[in-house]
Amino acid sequence: MLYYFYFYLKFVFHKKIQKEEKNKKSVSVIICAKDEAPNCLENIPFILAQDYPNFELVLVNDTSTDTTLDVFKKFATQYDNIKIVDVKHNERIVASKKYALSLGIKAANNEHLLFTDADCKPSSKNWISEMVASFDADTELILGYGAYEKQNGFLNKLIRYETMLTALHYFSFQLRGLTYMGVGRNLAYTKSLFVANNGFYAHMHIQSGDDDLFVNAAATKTNTRIHYTKNAHTISKPKTSLKAWFRQKRRHISTANQYKKNHQALLAMHFVSLFLFWSFALFLLIYSYQWQVVLLLFAVKLGLQYFIMYKTAEKLNEKDLIIFSPILEFVLLLLQLAQFLYNTIRKPLHWN
Question: Considering only Cβ atoms within 10 Å of each terminal Cβ, which end of the chain, N or C, has fewer?
């Protein structure tokens, strides 16, 4: 477990250098939506209100059966920087988000691509400018933070804690030269990188993974950067039921067995180390008279955890989660175990 604390410290002490870009790059913001009419109505105006001089908005309608396409057309009549890609159902082609996104990327006019989802909105008017400023001559891939809206209730805290912890993982791993994933809610890369890696071809047969599997395959030690400042976040509405969130996470973790082998090993070791820590601690607490030793182990672990999580939450604007960290970690560990076991029995099929 101390090994992972060592990984995390790289992010904890990382200082983000703010770059001021004089010559703004032309950007294509791409949103792929399937039956997302209400979310599109609510969130697209936040994209269009970005304080950025040169961007197009590529709206991809992925065979929607609701009024998503009508919503897109309504916005397109009001703004001349919108391009619509209408993906029709084709029995000869396996429908997937990756296929729809590929058509959107092909239609984009610009080299620099910025991705988010229909249920997301930028945290500020400077989202595009901050994310795109991280591109330079060597950087082709930018990992951002996709936050969830703060609401009342334990489930909301659990969802946000898991999201923050996942970000801590992929940010820290990137800083150690081991980039293994990113989130499609807030992700940027170049069209050249997409073409050089044959897009999603290698994992087109897998329903999910348009974000993490592409990043896992395309990232190198030198072509990737992270961007996590508050104004560069996106914000999504979280699931409001445990069942819905459980289903969503099952789909997300189902792609992990497609990661590079060293990434799989490191992630598995992290889960195992947490499981063993809590298992041995509870065992010793129940069956051993050396309760002082157990308390000392907890004190050391919690001290390091609070320090790391406090600094992480400070960077990611999630400070209200800190006090609940040990409880959230324990509950999340049990849920992840259940998700893993359930995924071995039944495979999630749909991306939406």
Answer: C
136 and 32 share one domain: yes
Distance CA 229, CA 208 (A): 27
Q: Write out the two tokens for 163.
A: 């999201």
Is the overall model pTM greater than 0.85, yes or no? yes
Domain end (from 245, 270, 296): 245
- Under 8 Å between Cβ of 236 and 119: yes
Q: Let me know: does 257 contact 139? Beta carbons within 8 Å.
A: no
| pLDDT tens per residue across span 20-33 | 666 689 999 999 99
Q: How far apart are CA 222 and CA 193, in angstroms?
A: 13
| 120-122, strands of its sheet edge to edge | 120-122, 234-236, 146-148
Residue-number span of the structural domain to which 323 is assigned: 262-345
Per the structure, the count of domains in the chain is: 2
> Exposed, middle or buried, 195 (CB in 10 Å: 0-12/13-18/19+)?
exposed
Residue 9 lies in a domain: no
